[in-house]
Amino acid sequence: MSRVGLKPITIPDGVTVTIKDNLSIVKGPKGEHRQHIPAGLNYDQADGELTISRSDDTKTNRSYHGLVRVLISNQVEGVTKGWTKSLEIIGVGYKAAVKGKILDLQLQFSHPINYEIPEGIEIVCPKPTLIDVSGIDKQQVGQVAAEIRSYRKPEPYKGKGIRYVGEEVRRKAGKAATA
Question: How many CB atoms lie within 10 A of CB 136?
């Protein structure tokens, strides 16, 4: 029995949820988000809540029950509040700046890295060493943040690189001097 799938999704005022033909469309104040969802589940919307139930107890329907509930819940939260991931840059001479639809990264390579910002994503640099990635699609925000982080992952000796805010980097001891 899926404990997550049984919880109803609260739909705030100003948000509409439409489910038809294996497609979930959620419209809200921040925009519209579409998500493909698997067939075999029943949806009941009443009194500002959406409940999801299974049509039968096959293994695939049981496994999709909680997944679909979380996907639709993430859509609702995305169009109301939005999703944000923050990255911090640590290292001498490392910095970032947004120039139009391009994120300019200076990461001690022989050339600057110009990352083209995808549609539906907003990137802001409040400080040269801080990057905020935001949007209505949780998966897309996480993917863009991971791509930016992959240009210079934090290294274990000095901790230099791009990391998520609050991420702990496990540090290693350097060479020991012989006496």
Answer: 24
Structure-token pair, residue 128: 């040269």
Q: What is the DSSP letter of 120?
A: T
3-state class (DSSP) for residue 111 = coil
In this structure, what DSSP letter does residue 131 have?
A: E
CA-CA distance, 152 to 135, in Å (whole number)?
23
What Rg value do the Cα atoms of the chain yield, rounded?
Answer: 21
Rounded to two decimals, the pTM is 0.89
The answer, yes or no, to whether residue 177 has pLDDT greater than 70, is no
Q: Are 120 and 136 in contact (CB under 8 A)?
A: yes
Per-residue pLDDT tens for 105-157? 999 999 999 999 999 999 999 999 999 999 999 999 999 999 999 999 999 99
Give me the CATH topology for the region 83-164: Outer Surface Protein A; domain 3 (3.90.930)
Residue 120 and residue 34 in contact, taking contact as beta carbons nearer than 8 Å: no
Residue 25 exposed, middle or buried by CB count within 10 Å (0-12, 13-18, 19+): middle
Q: Which CATH architecture has domain 3-80?
A: Alpha-Beta Complex (3.90)
Task: Indicate the SS3 state at residue 133.
Answer: strand
